[in-house]
TrEMBL record:
InterPro entries: ICAM_VCAM, ICAM_VCAM_N, Ig-like_dom, Ig-like_dom_sf, Ig-like_fold, Ig_C2-set, Ig_I-set, Ig_sub. It is found in: Cell membrane. This is Ig-like domain-containing protein. One of its GO terms (cellular component) is plasma membrane. GO terms for molecular function: integrin binding. SUPFAM superfamilies: Immunoglobulin. It comes from the Eukaryota. GO terms for biological process: cell-cell adhesion. Residues 25-97, 209-293, 300-382, 389-473 form the Ig-like domain.
Amino acid sequence: MFSLIVVKAFEMEIIPANRIVAQIGDTLILTCNTTGCASPSFSWRTQMDNPLGGTVNNHRTYSTLTMNPVSIVNSHDYLCTVFCGKQEKKEKSIKVELYSFPSDPIIEISPSSFVDGKQVTVTCKIPDVYPSAYLEVLLKKDKSILHEKNFYDDDSTNAETKTVKYSFNSTAEDMGKEITCVAKLPIANMDFEPKERVTSQKLNANFGPQNTVITVSPENPPMEGNPLSLTCVTESNPPPRIVWRKHLADESIERLIENNVLSIPHAHFNDSGLYICEVINLVTNKTEKATVNIVIQDGPKNTMISVIPATAVKEGETVTMKCTSSGNPAPVISWKKKKATGEYEKIFKDATLTIQSVKSQDLGLYECEAYNQFGKEEKSVTLLVQVPPQNITVLVYPSENVKEGENVTITCSSYSNPPSQMVLKKVHQEKEIILPSVNGTFILYNVTKNDTGKYLLDVFNEVGNNIKVIEIAVVGRLEKPDQMIPLIIAFSSVAAIAVPVVAILIYVSRKAKINGSYSLVKALRLKV
């Protein structure tokens, strides 16, 4: 049998074939491959015999030329020559075309945060471009075109960073608008992507503060004891410094905190007042203020009554009673007076109650009531009207003309405030006899003709006094003296003991009174 042996012809190829586009900085590998030759030998060279700019590695049937990284020196036609034995030789070439467009543009805005009306400079940098003669750059602000530039006349032979600058006057409306840099490298008949790169950056303006307001939480007027939060809201770039202040009652200002939120966990009536939020932008050097008046709602508190000239006045004087109370809304003030029955009678509706020419019937308990929808509070005061003794009535029993040996009882009643003291004085040439009263009663026991004469009854208190004159005439003697004398002696003995005791008890009880007290010892020292 015969076997058919097929012998392949000697062939070669370059991979990739004919033409390749490579980006500067990348790695490029060219492969020269053979078939039909068991032991080929390889040779690489460039057009015009320039340096290879790469590394050759020969293998059994193929050879590689590695350029890592690819640079401008590699922009040539590369020729691979293969020898198979001494007789056979083959060659092929490949054209290496280079470009560089590695990254998106870089935008720089100066200043980074602008101020309204000031000049802003936009710089767009396109890194490592080659060939830059094809480069086209477009600057836009939002959709409007700011600037266009091409580098058609650029003859750079290396990959270089190209820069485009443009300046314009900013306005407040530019805040937040986008600056866009579009870089194009439209090289005809060169297959690479991308041929267009885009970068955008928003304009950041320094402005404000402006439109500063204070929000209050809760929105309804706060109640005492509840939490209260004040928030200062403003528009400013960069963020501003915020200071809270409060107007005090004496027109001074209290500094509170440096924060946009002022929190009061438990609001108090004293927290009411005018609050100021002061906003300061240290870059724009501008300041703006916002104010809010806070009134903490509460029921009446600290209700007080003041009385002018005093709670004890003389009859005929004018007295003014003023009621004050704190609360929000402002409490309504009304007055009422306690009647003899114990019930209260409404008499006046205002903070100040004035009584002209005070009378005795004006004395009593007065009550001030402070009221609003959140509660009420009451305070009371007792008005004392001091009246000198008046309406004095004197009774002499059995009469002003009596017989020797009889007892004479003198009874006196009067109206006064504070209560009156009474002293009976006997007008005598050598001396005066002073007798204190027992509940307004004086007793002359077993009178004699020596008791005949003029008596002065002095009724007095702290406000004034009144004097009544009594004339006693003792004539003759009582009949049946033997029967009357024992009775008189017995009655006189009891009275002699009882009268001083009663007088002492009355003195002690009156001395113990807070108002309208009277000293009997002082009364006994009075002279006519």
